[in-house]
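Justification of resources, computational component.

The compute hours requested in this renewal are based largely on the per-chain cost of generating structure records like the one below. Each record pairs the submitted sequence with a full structure-token output. That output is archived, and it is also reused by downstream analysis tasks.
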Amino acid sequence: MKKRFIVLVLLGAMMTAPANAQWNSWNTSSTISGVFGAINHGIESAERKKQMEIYAKEKAQYEQSFKEAMESARDFEGGEYWEDALTKYEEAAKLNCIYGYTDQMQITRKINDLYVKAGRTEEGPSILNNNTTILADYSKYRYVRENPIYVNKKSTTTKIVRVACSDTETRLEMEFVCSTVNDGASIKGTTYIKGNKGGKLGLEGVENITMAPNSTRTPWPGQKLRFVLIFPPLPDNATEFDLIEPSTDWKFKDIKCK
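The structure output for this chain reads:
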């Protein structure tokens, strides 16, 4: 039946062509393509509708589980059972990231807070857990600037939060904000800086981030990863520099260093 239907459609399309027109192979190919395109579009629309129906059914099915996890989390939190509260908030976050019952950022903030209260500050890559990326003493650096001015024309969830220049290294503290579930951040070994008074300086070390192709994972949207990139020292007369990770959106230009 399907084959007969397609043939009839093709014949109908050909018969509706202008009588005085020259029907050629291009017209035939174009018509066949259009017919199959319409059929495929109909199939895709039906599949999308079916998927949406399944999604809506699952969302309703798991909504009660989400509500129960949130309620239990609040009860444990009220009783100061931090570990249990954290477990339940993470359980709720898993369902919420799939089905979107509420603002995920609210749950993420709870999870970040409970990492500290539960004494698990060495585990998750929340910014609350990354104090080791901050040097206790910058007094030996000739230049230190928080939130330095720079130009980045590409959209990125990473920013420079501190620049520190000394006679032995150039240290960049960066902050990555997770945007999806189990998002990942990494740095290429080919990353470099280039000062306005000197050539390229290659990456020498990192803190709290993984070198590509591996990634440091952040479990929940909205969590932040603080990490450090270490390069050789810039020349004394450099006033600004660029940070470039080849073949990515990490192109921070005109970073002030004096």
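The chain has four helices and twelve strands. The longest strand covers residues 158-165.
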